[in-house]
Amino acid sequence: MNLAEAKKRLAACGQEHVLEYWKGLSKAERSALLAQVAAIDPKSVKACAAALGGGGAAAVDTSRGLAPKVAELKGAALARAVAAGERELKAGRVAALLVAGGQGSRLGYDGPKGCYSIGPVTGAPLFHFHARKILARSRRYGKPIPFYVMTSEANNAATVECFRANGYFGLDPKDVFFFTQGMWPGMTKDGKIILDAPGHIFMSPDGHGGLLAALKRSGALDDMKRRGIRSVFFFQVDNPLVEIADPAFVGYHVLERSEYSLKLCAKRDPFEKVGMPMLVGGRYRMVEYTEMTKEQCLRKKGGKLYYLYGSPAIHVFDRAFLAREAAKAMPLHLAFKKIPYVAGGKVVKPAEPNGYKFEKFIFDILPNARRAAFLAFAQKDEFSPVKNAEGNDSPATCRADMRAKWARMLAAAGVKVPESMPLEIDPAYALDADDLVRRGLVLG
Ligand code: UTP
Q1: C-alpha 275 to ligand 1 mean position (Å)
Q2: Do the Cβ atoms of 329 and 368 come closer than 8 Å?
Q3: Residue 208: CB within 6 Å of ligand 1?
Q4: What CATH number matches the domain at 56-392, 3.90.550.10, 3.30.1540.10, 3.10.180.10, 3.30.70.270?
Q5: pLDDT in tens, 257-306
Q6: Ligand 1: which of 238, 288, 364 to mutate, most ligand atoms within 8 Å of CB?
Protein backbone atom coordinates (compact mmCIF):
# COMPACT_ATOMS: atom_id res chain seq x y z
CA MET A 1 0.00 0.00 0.00
CA ASN A 2 1.34 3.46 -0.83
CA LEU A 3 0.59 6.80 0.83
CA ALA A 4 -2.17 7.76 -1.62
CA GLU A 5 -3.94 4.42 -1.09
CA ALA A 6 -3.62 4.76 2.68
CA LYS A 7 -5.15 8.25 2.54
CA LYS A 8 -8.05 6.91 0.50
CA ARG A 9 -8.68 3.99 2.85
CA LEU A 10 -8.58 6.22 5.94
CA ALA A 11 -10.82 8.82 4.33
CA ALA A 12 -13.36 6.06 3.64
CA CYS A 13 -13.83 5.66 7.39
CA GLY A 14 -13.17 9.19 8.60
CA GLN A 15 -9.74 8.44 10.14
CA GLU A 16 -7.40 10.75 8.19
CA HIS A 17 -5.73 11.88 11.45
CA VAL A 18 -3.84 8.55 11.55
CA LEU A 19 -1.31 10.11 9.16
CA GLU A 20 -0.96 13.29 11.23
CA TYR A 21 2.72 12.62 12.10
CA TRP A 22 3.69 11.16 8.70
CA LYS A 23 6.25 13.84 7.88
CA GLY A 24 8.32 13.14 10.99
CA LEU A 25 8.38 9.33 10.60
CA SER A 26 11.42 7.31 9.57
CA LYS A 27 11.28 5.07 6.48
CA ALA A 28 10.77 1.97 8.64
CA GLU A 29 8.02 3.64 10.69
CA ARG A 30 6.27 4.74 7.51
CA SER A 31 6.20 1.27 6.01
CA ALA A 32 5.03 -0.24 9.33
CA LEU A 33 2.20 2.29 9.51
CA LEU A 34 1.20 1.64 5.90
CA ALA A 35 1.09 -2.09 6.69
CA GLN A 36 -1.21 -1.38 9.64
CA VAL A 37 -3.51 0.76 7.50
CA ALA A 38 -3.55 -1.94 4.81
CA ALA A 39 -4.71 -4.47 7.42
CA ILE A 40 -7.56 -2.20 8.54
CA ASP A 41 -10.95 -2.92 7.11
CA PRO A 42 -12.90 0.37 6.79
CA LYS A 43 -16.15 -1.54 7.35
CA SER A 44 -14.92 -2.86 10.71
CA VAL A 45 -13.70 0.59 11.71
CA LYS A 46 -17.12 2.00 10.92
CA ALA A 47 -18.73 -0.83 12.94
CA CYS A 48 -16.54 0.10 15.95
CA ALA A 49 -17.46 3.77 15.64
CA ALA A 50 -21.13 2.82 15.33
CA ALA A 51 -20.83 0.65 18.46
CA LEU A 52 -19.64 3.73 20.35
CA GLY A 53 -22.74 5.51 19.20
CA GLY A 54 -24.95 2.85 20.77
CA GLY A 55 -24.80 0.22 18.01
CA GLY A 56 -22.83 -2.31 20.09
CA ALA A 57 -24.10 -5.39 21.88
CA ALA A 58 -27.49 -4.49 23.32
CA ALA A 59 -28.03 -4.83 27.07
CA VAL A 60 -30.40 -7.70 27.86
CA ASP A 61 -33.45 -7.35 30.08
CA THR A 62 -33.10 -10.46 32.20
CA SER A 63 -36.01 -9.75 34.54
CA ARG A 64 -38.14 -12.45 32.88
CA GLY A 65 -35.26 -14.76 32.05
CA LEU A 66 -35.86 -18.45 32.72
CA ALA A 67 -33.21 -20.85 33.94
CA PRO A 68 -32.43 -23.48 31.28
CA LYS A 69 -33.19 -27.17 31.70
CA VAL A 70 -29.84 -28.68 32.60
CA ALA A 71 -29.29 -32.42 32.19
CA GLU A 72 -27.52 -34.39 34.89
CA LEU A 73 -26.65 -37.63 33.15
CA LYS A 74 -26.72 -40.83 35.19
CA GLY A 75 -27.23 -44.55 34.63
CA ALA A 76 -28.75 -45.52 31.28
CA ALA A 77 -28.90 -41.93 29.99
CA LEU A 78 -25.21 -41.50 30.69
CA ALA A 79 -24.38 -44.82 29.01
CA ARG A 80 -26.38 -43.80 25.91
CA ALA A 81 -24.56 -40.47 25.69
CA VAL A 82 -21.13 -42.10 26.14
CA ALA A 83 -21.91 -44.67 23.44
CA ALA A 84 -23.02 -41.92 21.02
CA GLY A 85 -19.89 -39.89 21.76
CA GLU A 86 -17.65 -42.90 21.28
CA ARG A 87 -19.27 -43.53 17.91
CA GLU A 88 -18.41 -39.95 16.87
CA LEU A 89 -14.83 -40.31 18.08
CA LYS A 90 -14.35 -43.70 16.38
CA ALA A 91 -15.69 -42.24 13.15
CA GLY A 92 -13.17 -39.36 13.38
CA ARG A 93 -15.93 -36.74 13.40
CA VAL A 94 -14.67 -34.78 16.46
CA ALA A 95 -12.24 -31.83 16.51
CA ALA A 96 -10.75 -29.87 19.42
CA LEU A 97 -10.79 -26.08 19.25
CA LEU A 98 -8.74 -24.00 21.66
CA VAL A 99 -8.88 -20.24 22.06
CA ALA A 100 -5.42 -19.13 23.18
CA GLY A 101 -5.18 -15.61 21.82
CA GLY A 102 -5.82 -13.80 25.10
CA GLN A 103 -3.34 -11.44 26.71
CA GLY A 104 -3.41 -13.05 30.15
CA SER A 105 -3.04 -9.62 31.74
CA ARG A 106 -4.34 -10.69 35.17
CA LEU A 107 -1.77 -13.50 35.42
CA GLY A 108 0.96 -11.08 34.39
CA TYR A 109 2.94 -13.76 32.54
CA ASP A 110 5.11 -12.51 29.73
CA GLY A 111 4.28 -15.02 27.00
CA PRO A 112 1.35 -17.07 25.72
CA LYS A 113 -0.63 -18.35 28.70
CA GLY A 114 -0.50 -21.85 27.21
CA CYS A 115 3.29 -21.86 27.76
CA TYR A 116 2.84 -21.14 31.47
CA SER A 117 4.40 -23.87 33.59
CA ILE A 118 1.60 -25.55 35.55
CA GLY A 119 2.59 -29.23 35.99
CA PRO A 120 2.95 -29.61 39.78
CA VAL A 121 5.91 -32.00 39.41
CA THR A 122 7.27 -31.62 35.87
CA GLY A 123 6.50 -27.93 35.41
CA ALA A 124 4.94 -28.84 32.05
CA PRO A 125 3.08 -26.00 30.31
CA LEU A 126 -0.69 -25.73 30.06
CA PHE A 127 -0.48 -26.74 26.38
CA HIS A 128 1.07 -30.07 27.46
CA PHE A 129 -2.06 -31.09 29.38
CA HIS A 130 -4.39 -30.15 26.53
CA ALA A 131 -2.37 -31.78 23.76
CA ARG A 132 -1.66 -34.97 25.73
CA LYS A 133 -5.38 -35.42 26.46
CA ILE A 134 -6.14 -35.08 22.77
CA LEU A 135 -3.41 -37.59 22.01
CA ALA A 136 -4.77 -40.08 24.58
CA ARG A 137 -8.33 -39.69 23.39
CA SER A 138 -7.40 -40.12 19.72
CA ARG A 139 -5.29 -43.22 20.52
CA ARG A 140 -8.15 -44.68 22.50
CA TYR A 141 -10.60 -44.32 19.63
CA GLY A 142 -8.17 -44.98 16.79
CA LYS A 143 -8.82 -41.71 14.89
CA PRO A 144 -7.03 -38.37 15.02
CA ILE A 145 -8.80 -35.50 16.77
CA PRO A 146 -7.56 -32.49 14.77
CA PHE A 147 -6.48 -29.70 17.10
CA TYR A 148 -7.26 -26.11 16.03
CA VAL A 149 -5.41 -23.51 18.10
CA MET A 150 -6.36 -19.84 17.87
CA THR A 151 -3.52 -17.45 18.70
CA SER A 152 -3.10 -13.69 18.35
CA GLU A 153 -0.56 -11.72 16.36
CA ALA A 154 1.22 -11.05 19.65
CA ASN A 155 1.60 -14.69 20.73
CA ASN A 156 1.43 -16.80 17.56
CA ALA A 157 5.17 -17.23 17.01
CA ALA A 158 5.84 -18.11 20.67
CA THR A 159 2.92 -20.56 20.69
CA VAL A 160 4.08 -22.37 17.57
CA GLU A 161 7.62 -22.47 18.97
CA CYS A 162 6.37 -23.99 22.24
CA PHE A 163 4.69 -26.82 20.30
CA ARG A 164 7.74 -27.30 18.07
CA ALA A 165 10.22 -27.34 20.96
CA ASN A 166 8.08 -29.94 22.74
CA GLY A 167 7.69 -32.22 19.71
CA TYR A 168 4.04 -31.17 19.41
CA PHE A 169 3.57 -33.00 22.72
CA GLY A 170 3.39 -36.24 20.75
CA LEU A 171 0.69 -35.12 18.32
CA ASP A 172 1.20 -35.42 14.59
CA PRO A 173 1.91 -31.84 13.37
CA LYS A 174 -0.39 -32.40 10.41
CA ASP A 175 -3.26 -32.65 12.89
CA VAL A 176 -2.43 -29.33 14.59
CA PHE A 177 -3.71 -26.18 12.90
CA PHE A 178 -2.67 -22.76 14.23
CA PHE A 179 -4.61 -19.71 13.15
CA THR A 180 -4.54 -16.11 14.25
CA GLN A 181 -7.44 -13.98 15.45
CA GLY A 182 -8.06 -10.46 14.25
CA MET A 183 -7.10 -7.18 15.89
CA TRP A 184 -9.19 -4.05 16.26
CA PRO A 185 -7.91 -0.48 16.63
CA GLY A 186 -8.62 1.29 19.90
CA MET A 187 -10.78 4.42 19.70
CA THR A 188 -11.49 7.63 21.58
CA LYS A 189 -15.03 8.31 22.84
CA ASP A 190 -15.78 10.13 19.60
CA GLY A 191 -14.77 7.25 17.36
CA LYS A 192 -11.25 8.29 16.38
CA ILE A 193 -8.53 5.64 16.10
CA ILE A 194 -5.88 6.03 18.80
CA LEU A 195 -2.19 6.21 17.90
CA ASP A 196 0.00 4.85 20.70
CA ALA A 197 3.11 6.21 18.97
CA PRO A 198 3.35 8.82 16.19
CA GLY A 199 3.67 6.05 13.59
CA HIS A 200 1.66 3.30 15.25
CA ILE A 201 -2.02 2.48 15.69
CA PHE A 202 -3.05 0.97 19.03
CA MET A 203 -4.49 -2.47 18.29
CA SER A 204 -5.93 -5.17 20.56
CA PRO A 205 -7.22 -8.73 19.95
CA ASP A 206 -10.86 -8.91 18.84
CA GLY A 207 -11.97 -11.24 21.67
CA HIS A 208 -12.67 -14.98 21.66
CA GLY A 209 -15.63 -14.25 19.38
CA GLY A 210 -13.03 -13.28 16.79
CA LEU A 211 -12.79 -17.04 16.45
CA LEU A 212 -15.50 -17.30 13.83
CA ALA A 213 -14.01 -14.84 11.37
CA ALA A 214 -10.55 -16.30 12.00
CA LEU A 215 -11.74 -19.87 11.43
CA LYS A 216 -13.14 -18.82 8.10
CA ARG A 217 -10.26 -16.59 7.00
CA SER A 218 -7.60 -19.16 7.86
CA GLY A 219 -9.22 -22.06 6.04
CA ALA A 220 -9.69 -23.96 9.33
CA LEU A 221 -13.42 -24.36 8.67
CA ASP A 222 -12.70 -25.81 5.23
CA ASP A 223 -10.11 -28.11 6.76
CA MET A 224 -12.71 -29.37 9.27
CA LYS A 225 -15.17 -30.00 6.47
CA ARG A 226 -12.59 -31.83 4.38
CA ARG A 227 -11.83 -34.09 7.35
CA GLY A 228 -15.50 -34.89 7.89
CA ILE A 229 -15.71 -33.16 11.28
CA ARG A 230 -19.19 -32.79 12.73
CA SER A 231 -18.68 -31.93 16.41
CA VAL A 232 -16.22 -29.27 17.54
CA PHE A 233 -15.16 -29.31 21.19
CA PHE A 234 -14.33 -25.75 22.31
CA PHE A 235 -12.26 -24.88 25.39
CA GLN A 236 -10.10 -22.16 26.93
CA VAL A 237 -6.38 -22.30 27.46
CA ASP A 238 -6.32 -21.62 31.19
CA ASN A 239 -8.19 -24.70 32.44
CA PRO A 240 -5.99 -27.83 32.55
CA LEU A 241 -8.79 -29.85 34.16
CA VAL A 242 -11.02 -29.72 31.07
CA GLU A 243 -12.03 -33.14 29.73
CA ILE A 244 -11.38 -32.50 26.07
CA ALA A 245 -13.70 -34.34 23.66
CA ASP A 246 -15.38 -36.04 26.59
CA PRO A 247 -17.57 -38.76 24.99
CA ALA A 248 -20.54 -38.12 27.29
CA PHE A 249 -20.71 -34.45 26.35
CA VAL A 250 -20.08 -35.00 22.64
CA GLY A 251 -22.63 -37.82 22.66
CA TYR A 252 -25.26 -35.77 24.51
CA HIS A 253 -24.75 -32.97 21.98
CA VAL A 254 -25.28 -35.36 19.07
CA LEU A 255 -28.28 -37.14 20.60
CA GLU A 256 -29.92 -33.79 21.32
CA ARG A 257 -29.25 -32.71 17.71
CA SER A 258 -27.89 -29.56 19.28
CA GLU A 259 -26.00 -26.88 17.39
CA TYR A 260 -24.45 -25.33 20.50
CA SER A 261 -24.05 -27.32 23.72
CA LEU A 262 -22.73 -25.97 26.98
CA LYS A 263 -21.30 -27.69 30.01
CA LEU A 264 -22.44 -25.88 33.12
CA CYS A 265 -21.40 -26.12 36.73
CA ALA A 266 -23.08 -25.04 39.94
CA LYS A 267 -21.83 -21.63 41.00
CA ARG A 268 -19.56 -21.59 44.04
CA ASP A 269 -21.52 -18.65 45.40
CA PRO A 270 -24.55 -16.74 44.07
CA PHE A 271 -22.39 -13.82 42.96
CA GLU A 272 -19.65 -15.79 41.26
CA LYS A 273 -18.42 -13.82 38.25
CA VAL A 274 -19.49 -16.22 35.53
CA GLY A 275 -21.95 -15.91 32.66
CA MET A 276 -25.22 -17.85 32.82
CA PRO A 277 -27.39 -19.06 29.99
CA MET A 278 -31.02 -18.00 30.26
CA LEU A 279 -34.10 -18.30 28.15
CA VAL A 280 -35.00 -14.70 27.35
CA GLY A 281 -37.75 -13.85 24.87
CA GLY A 282 -37.85 -17.42 23.56
CA ARG A 283 -34.12 -17.67 22.91
CA TYR A 284 -31.24 -18.90 24.95
CA ARG A 285 -28.56 -16.30 25.52
CA MET A 286 -25.59 -15.89 27.79
CA VAL A 287 -26.25 -13.35 30.48
CA GLU A 288 -23.28 -11.68 32.17
CA TYR A 289 -23.22 -11.63 35.97
CA THR A 290 -23.27 -7.84 35.69
CA GLU A 291 -26.66 -8.03 33.95
CA MET A 292 -28.39 -9.62 36.96
CA THR A 293 -29.79 -7.95 40.03
CA LYS A 294 -28.82 -9.02 43.56
CA GLU A 295 -32.36 -10.39 44.08
CA GLN A 296 -32.11 -12.45 40.92
CA CYS A 297 -28.77 -13.90 41.93
CA LEU A 298 -30.21 -14.93 45.30
CA ARG A 299 -33.58 -16.24 44.02
CA LYS A 300 -34.24 -19.80 45.15
CA LYS A 301 -36.42 -22.68 43.99
CA GLY A 302 -36.76 -25.87 46.05
CA GLY A 303 -33.92 -24.74 48.31
CA LYS A 304 -31.51 -24.33 45.40
CA LEU A 305 -30.48 -21.18 43.58
CA TYR A 306 -32.86 -20.62 40.67
CA TYR A 307 -29.98 -19.51 38.45
CA LEU A 308 -27.70 -22.17 39.81
CA TYR A 309 -25.48 -22.80 36.85
CA GLY A 310 -22.61 -20.83 35.39
CA SER A 311 -20.73 -21.38 32.17
CA PRO A 312 -17.00 -22.14 32.31
CA ALA A 313 -16.83 -21.83 28.50
CA ILE A 314 -16.71 -25.54 27.67
CA HIS A 315 -18.80 -26.06 24.55
CA VAL A 316 -19.51 -28.42 21.69
CA PHE A 317 -20.49 -26.81 18.41
CA ASP A 318 -21.93 -28.32 15.30
CA ARG A 319 -19.41 -27.54 12.56
CA ALA A 320 -22.09 -26.49 10.09
CA PHE A 321 -23.47 -24.07 12.69
CA LEU A 322 -20.04 -22.46 13.06
CA ALA A 323 -19.83 -22.14 9.27
CA ARG A 324 -23.28 -20.51 9.15
CA GLU A 325 -22.40 -18.06 11.92
CA ALA A 326 -18.97 -17.23 10.47
CA ALA A 327 -20.73 -15.60 7.55
CA LYS A 328 -22.50 -13.09 9.84
CA ALA A 329 -21.40 -9.99 11.74
CA MET A 330 -21.23 -10.33 15.53
CA PRO A 331 -22.15 -7.69 18.12
CA LEU A 332 -19.29 -5.66 19.55
CA HIS A 333 -18.66 -5.24 23.26
CA LEU A 334 -16.86 -2.16 24.51
CA ALA A 335 -14.22 -1.99 27.25
CA PHE A 336 -13.17 1.45 28.52
CA LYS A 337 -9.41 1.20 29.20
CA LYS A 338 -6.22 3.19 29.75
CA ILE A 339 -4.68 3.39 26.29
CA PRO A 340 -1.39 5.21 25.60
CA TYR A 341 -1.90 8.04 23.12
CA VAL A 342 0.07 10.73 21.31
CA ALA A 343 -0.38 14.41 22.11
CA GLY A 344 1.78 17.03 20.41
CA GLY A 345 4.02 14.27 19.05
CA LYS A 346 4.71 12.82 22.53
CA VAL A 347 3.41 9.53 23.97
CA VAL A 348 1.21 9.95 27.05
CA LYS A 349 0.34 7.11 29.46
CA PRO A 350 -3.03 8.07 30.92
CA ALA A 351 -3.81 7.56 34.61
CA GLU A 352 -7.50 7.05 33.90
CA PRO A 353 -9.35 5.14 31.16
CA ASN A 354 -9.45 7.23 28.00
CA GLY A 355 -10.37 4.94 25.14
CA TYR A 356 -12.24 1.90 24.00
CA LYS A 357 -11.19 -1.60 23.05
CA PHE A 358 -13.65 -3.73 21.09
CA GLU A 359 -14.30 -7.41 21.58
CA LYS A 360 -16.58 -10.11 20.25
CA PHE A 361 -17.76 -12.93 22.51
CA ILE A 362 -18.25 -16.44 21.20
CA PHE A 363 -21.39 -17.02 23.28
CA ASP A 364 -23.19 -14.24 21.40
CA ILE A 365 -24.04 -16.86 18.78
CA LEU A 366 -26.05 -18.90 21.29
CA PRO A 367 -29.40 -17.23 20.43
CA ASN A 368 -28.88 -18.20 16.79
CA ALA A 369 -28.63 -21.93 17.52
CA ARG A 370 -31.69 -23.81 16.29
CA ARG A 371 -31.20 -26.21 19.17
CA ALA A 372 -29.06 -25.85 22.30
CA ALA A 373 -28.30 -28.35 25.07
CA PHE A 374 -27.03 -27.93 28.63
CA LEU A 375 -25.16 -30.51 30.62
CA ALA A 376 -24.19 -30.30 34.29
CA PHE A 377 -20.81 -31.37 35.58
CA ALA A 378 -18.93 -31.23 38.87
CA GLN A 379 -16.64 -28.25 38.97
CA LYS A 380 -13.95 -29.99 41.00
CA ASP A 381 -13.48 -32.53 38.20
CA GLU A 382 -13.26 -30.25 35.20
CA PHE A 383 -12.80 -26.59 35.98
CA SER A 384 -9.99 -24.77 37.75
CA PRO A 385 -8.77 -21.88 35.64
CA VAL A 386 -5.51 -19.99 35.94
CA LYS A 387 -6.66 -16.37 35.80
CA ASN A 388 -4.89 -14.47 38.58
CA ALA A 389 -1.30 -14.46 39.82
CA GLU A 390 -2.46 -15.08 43.40
CA GLY A 391 -5.57 -15.91 45.41
CA ASN A 392 -8.64 -17.36 43.66
CA ASP A 393 -8.20 -19.06 40.31
CA SER A 394 -4.43 -18.82 40.52
CA PRO A 395 -1.62 -21.29 39.66
CA ALA A 396 -1.59 -22.40 43.31
CA THR A 397 -5.32 -23.25 43.44
CA CYS A 398 -5.13 -24.88 40.01
CA ARG A 399 -2.16 -27.11 40.93
CA ALA A 400 -3.94 -28.15 44.14
CA ASP A 401 -7.07 -29.02 42.13
CA MET A 402 -5.01 -30.96 39.57
CA ARG A 403 -3.38 -32.94 42.34
CA ALA A 404 -6.70 -33.63 44.05
CA LYS A 405 -8.17 -34.92 40.77
CA TRP A 406 -5.23 -37.27 40.22
CA ALA A 407 -5.47 -38.47 43.81
CA ARG A 408 -9.18 -39.28 43.22
CA MET A 409 -8.24 -41.12 40.03
CA LEU A 410 -5.66 -43.18 41.87
CA ALA A 411 -8.09 -43.89 44.70
CA ALA A 412 -10.66 -45.11 42.14
CA ALA A 413 -7.99 -47.44 40.79
CA GLY A 414 -7.41 -48.72 44.31
CA VAL A 415 -4.25 -46.77 45.08
CA LYS A 416 -4.09 -44.52 48.14
CA VAL A 417 -1.38 -41.87 48.20
CA PRO A 418 -0.21 -39.90 51.25
CA GLU A 419 -1.46 -36.32 51.21
CA SER A 420 2.05 -34.95 51.30
CA MET A 421 3.11 -36.87 48.19
CA PRO A 422 3.58 -34.72 45.06
CA LEU A 423 1.54 -36.07 42.16
CA GLU A 424 1.32 -35.63 38.41
CA ILE A 425 -0.04 -38.00 35.80
CA ASP A 426 0.64 -37.52 32.10
CA PRO A 427 -2.78 -37.63 30.42
CA ALA A 428 -1.23 -39.71 27.63
CA TYR A 429 -0.29 -42.30 30.26
CA ALA A 430 -3.72 -42.39 31.85
CA LEU A 431 -6.81 -40.32 31.16
CA ASP A 432 -8.82 -41.94 33.92
CA ALA A 433 -8.85 -44.65 36.59
CA ASP A 434 -9.64 -47.35 34.00
CA ASP A 435 -6.42 -46.51 32.17
CA LEU A 436 -4.51 -46.82 35.43
CA VAL A 437 -6.03 -50.23 36.09
CA ARG A 438 -5.33 -51.35 32.51
CA ARG A 439 -1.72 -50.35 32.95
CA GLY A 440 -1.53 -52.41 36.15
CA LEU A 441 -0.27 -49.39 38.03
CA VAL A 442 2.02 -50.17 40.94
CA LEU A 443 3.39 -47.29 42.99
CA GLY A 444 6.86 -47.19 44.55
P1 UTP B 1 -10.00 -14.34 29.37
O2 UTP B 1 -11.25 -13.60 29.26
O3 UTP B 1 -9.72 -15.02 30.65
O4 UTP B 1 -8.81 -13.37 28.98
O5 UTP B 1 -9.93 -15.36 28.18
P6 UTP B 1 -7.24 -13.55 29.03
O7 UTP B 1 -6.72 -12.69 27.95
O8 UTP B 1 -6.80 -14.99 28.98
O9 UTP B 1 -6.83 -12.99 30.45
P10 UTP B 1 -6.96 -11.50 31.03
O11 UTP B 1 -8.41 -11.18 31.07
O12 UTP B 1 -6.17 -10.58 30.12
O13 UTP B 1 -6.34 -11.63 32.38
C14 UTP B 1 -10.64 -16.56 28.15
C15 UTP B 1 -10.12 -17.40 27.00
O16 UTP B 1 -10.33 -16.73 25.77
C17 UTP B 1 -9.12 -16.58 25.08
C18 UTP B 1 -8.03 -16.66 26.12
O19 UTP B 1 -6.80 -17.04 25.57
C20 UTP B 1 -8.62 -17.69 27.07
O21 UTP B 1 -8.39 -19.01 26.59
N22 UTP B 1 -9.14 -15.28 24.36
C23 UTP B 1 -9.51 -14.15 25.01
C24 UTP B 1 -8.74 -15.26 23.06
O25 UTP B 1 -8.40 -16.30 22.46
N26 UTP B 1 -8.74 -14.05 22.41
C27 UTP B 1 -9.12 -12.91 23.02
O28 UTP B 1 -9.09 -11.84 22.37
C29 UTP B 1 -9.52 -12.96 24.35
Answers
A1: 15
A2: no
A3: yes
A4: 3.90.550.10
A5: 999 999 999 998 999 989 999 999 899 999 988 888 899 999 999 889 99
A6: 238
